[in-house]
């Protein structure tokens, strides 16, 4: 048994609804790089897949970084002199700058303004801001609200804590036939933002759930961790695992209506880049391939020179290139069930190629073997063209000299990987192909 290609032909609209509903469930949680919100989110994932939730204590040295103190928050608001809450964390957790230190003071508008963040160009949106590595506090609000704040004495109240604690991440491993593994990584540190991070968490969770039920050649590892410090912590604590990682993908921002974007990894001739490009091409939807750059999400860590794994990144519209990015407009209206489903389907197509890509040798290579007598070929001569399946068989027989994989043949012939893979099965069944290697 192997990864079932028929999985790709199923109707994904139902699963799109599930992906969306899971994002909706996680939406209210106030996540950050540490704290209860991260644990609550990981618990939600654990209800769907058997996730291990790990913890790394504050102060742990992880390569050039140190695990920070744990941040938790119960309440935060700004009250005017009449006692009315003008900004309330309980209405939207983006109102508080992540990692804000506790405070309870009264101040003038001009003092307060030094701690307020807005986006003038998007006057209705609340920005998302963090202050992980420098102690400070602040509030975020829409520019429209900001400009109507009158001169007054404002009570600023933040009931937060910044203490020794832990950084959490979740991990799930599916053992396949081979020790070689494929890594999927998604970040989990953003509060109520949908495309940027809930779409990734939801998609990777359901991917893991689907792959659990498959017979797999490769082993699969799924990591749900805070951005940057989470990836650095995981890499630093799991160096013994790294030699097993054959390919990997960062999955994030996969729920918006833009086309899929694949960002190549650091190594110019890597297999994962070829696999993803072919999968997206076969998907028959618009997509774009981006060159590698040492900026973006956690591909920065996986593709650093001392780690140097073949880890690419799959998003829809990339970070920073849509106006809703890192604002309150990245909400439940911004992501779409059918786009989440389409992203998951593309990832399954990638897995399909990884799982079913093999190298064969044609055992009858002197001239073409006679396909007709084996029932593989339409015997009526003179017809225009050759049907796709026969065409695929001819390509496979021609290229299977022990050097070229099915993926190589699919790329060179311009045929879909699935067509090549199915045709190879007929040739194996009649003894014309012999397996050389799993690519
Ligand atoms: Zn982000």
What does this structure look like?
- There is one protein chain.
- The protein is α/β, with parallel strands linked by helices and 439 residues long.
- The protein folds into 3 domains: 253 residues, Zn peptidases (Aminopeptidase), CATH 3.40.630.10; 94 residues, 3-Layer(bba) Sandwich (Glucose Oxidase, domain 1), CATH 3.50.30.90; 81 residues, Arc Repressor Mutant, subunit A (Orthogonal Bundle).
- It is built from 12 helices and 19 strands.
- An 8-stranded mixed beta sheet has the order 1-10-12-11-13-16-14-15, sandwiched between helices. It has a 4-stranded antiparallel beta sheet with strand order 5-4-9-6.
- Strand 11, helix 5 and strand 12 form a beta-alpha-beta unit.
- Helix 10 packs across helix 12.
- The longest helix is centred in the C-terminal third of the chain and has 20 residues.
- The chain binds zinc ion.
- The site of zinc ion has 3 residues, from loops.
CATH fold type of the largest domain: Aminopeptidase
Number of strands: 19
Unreliable stretches: none
Head-to-tail CA distance between termini: 17 Å
Q: What topology, given as strand order, has the largest sheet? A: 1-10-12-11-13-16-14-15
Q: Which distinct ligands sit in these coordinates? A: zinc ion
β-strand amount = 15-25%
> What is the number of independent domains?
3
Summed over residues and divided by their number, the pLDDT gives a mean of 95
Largest sheet: 8 strands, mixed
CATH class term of the largest domain: Alpha Beta
CATH architect. name of the largest domain? 3-Layer(aba) Sandwich
> Which structural category fits the helices and strands?
alpha/beta
Number of helices: 12
> How helix-rich are the residues, as a percent range?
25-40%
Quaternary structure: single chain
């Amino acid at each position: 048994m192997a990864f079932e290609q028929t999985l790709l032909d199923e109707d994904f609209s139902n699963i799109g609804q599930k992906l969306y509903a899971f994002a909706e469930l996680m939406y209210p949680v106030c996540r950050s790089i540490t704290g209860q919100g991260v644990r609550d989110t990981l618990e939600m994932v654990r209800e769907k897949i058997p996730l291990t939730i790990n913890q790394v204590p504050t102060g742990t040295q992880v390569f050039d970084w140190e695990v920070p103190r744990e941040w938790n928050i119960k309440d935060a608001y700004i009250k005017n002199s009449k006692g009315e809450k003008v900004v309330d964390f309980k209405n939207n957790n983006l109102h508080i700058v992540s990692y804000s230190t506790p405070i309870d003071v009264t101040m003038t508008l001009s003092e307060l303004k030094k701690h307020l963040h807005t986006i003038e160009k998007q006057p209705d949106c609340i920005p998302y801001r963090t202050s992980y590595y420098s102690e400070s506090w602040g509030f975020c609000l829409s520019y429209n609200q900001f400009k109507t704040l009158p001169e007054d004495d404002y009570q600023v109240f933040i009931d937060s804590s910044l203490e020794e604690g832990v950084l959490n991440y979740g991990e799930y491993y599916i053992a396949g036939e081979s020790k070689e593994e494929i890594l999927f990584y998604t970040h989990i540190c953003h509060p109520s933002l949908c495309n940027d991070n809930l779409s990734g968490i939801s998609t990777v969770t359901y991917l893991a759930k689907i792959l659990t039920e498959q017979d797999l050649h490769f082993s699969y590892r799924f990591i749900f961790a805070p951005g940057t410090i989470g990836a650095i912590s995981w890499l630093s604590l799991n160096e013994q695992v790294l030699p097993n990682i054959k390919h990997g993908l960062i999955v994030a921002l996969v729920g918006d209506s833009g086309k899929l974007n694949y960002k190549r990894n650091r190594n110019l001739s890597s297999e994962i880049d070829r696999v993803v490009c072919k999968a997206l091409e076969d998907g028959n939807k618009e997509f774009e391939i981006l060159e590698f750059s040492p900026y973006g999400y956690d591909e920065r860590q996986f593709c650093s020179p001392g780690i140097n794994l073949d880890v690419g990144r799959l998003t829809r519209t990339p970070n920073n290139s849509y106006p809703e990015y890192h604002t309150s407009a990245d909400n439940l209206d911004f992501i779409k069930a059918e786009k989440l489903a389409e992203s998951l389907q593309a990832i399954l197509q990638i897995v399909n190629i990884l799982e079913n890509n093999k190298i064969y040798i044609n055992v009858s290579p002197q001239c073409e073997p006679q396909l007709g007598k084996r029932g593989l070929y339409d015997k009526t001569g003179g017809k225009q063209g050759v049907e796709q399946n026969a065409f695929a068989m001819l390509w496979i027989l021609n290229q299977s000299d022990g050097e070229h994989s099915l993926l190589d043949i699919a790329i060179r012939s311009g045929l879909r990987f699935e067509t090549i893979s199915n045709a190879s099965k007929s040739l194996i069944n009649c003894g014309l192909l012999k397996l050389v290697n799993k690519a």
